[in-house]
Design brief:
This protein is α+β, with helices and mostly antiparallel strands and 124 residues long. The protein has 3 helices and 4 strands; from the N terminus they run H-E-E-E-H-E-H. A hairpin with a 2-residue loop joins strand 1 and strand 2.
Length: 124
């Protein structure tokens, strides 16, 4: 069994989009957009030499706070696990409608696989 230290499980501030202008840049002029079910992903390449994540899970889309928090926790965890494979990109994931746990995992896996493909093109 592989044990993970508490520090390897964290999602530090440097890997998060925290400023409104960063969100705005990704949402207004994305380098690419992806969609899967009720999830929308916008991404823009950055100069930070790391991938950063921003989340938008609004009350109009998911009314219960516990559900919003669970959705954000799942997205952060999945992003944290593949962040090192992405390169320099800012990503904003929006949830635009209620989503079940199974749907969330299925759609999120699809989005993140496509994100990895787009940020790491294979040489031809």
């Amino acid at each position: 069994m592989v044990e993970h230290s508490a520090t390897s499980q964290r999602f530090p501030r440097q890997f998060r989009l925290t400023r409104a202008r960063d969100f705005e840049r990704v949402l207004r002029a994305p380098d690419f957009r992806l969609s899967a079910g009720p999830l929308r992903l916008n991404a823009v390449f950055n100069r930070m030499h790391t991938a950063r994540l921003g989340l938008i899970v609004g009350r109009k889309s998911v009314s219960r706070a516990t559900a919003r928090n669970r959705i954000k926790r799942v997205i952060r965890d999945r992003f944290r696990r593949i962040r090192s494979e992405l390169g320099s990109v800012d990503v904003v994931v929006r949830v635009v409608a209620p989503v079940t746990r199974m749907e969330l995992h299925r759609h999120l896996d699809r989005l993140l696989t496509e994100l990895k493909r787009k940020t790491n093109p294979t040489p031809s």
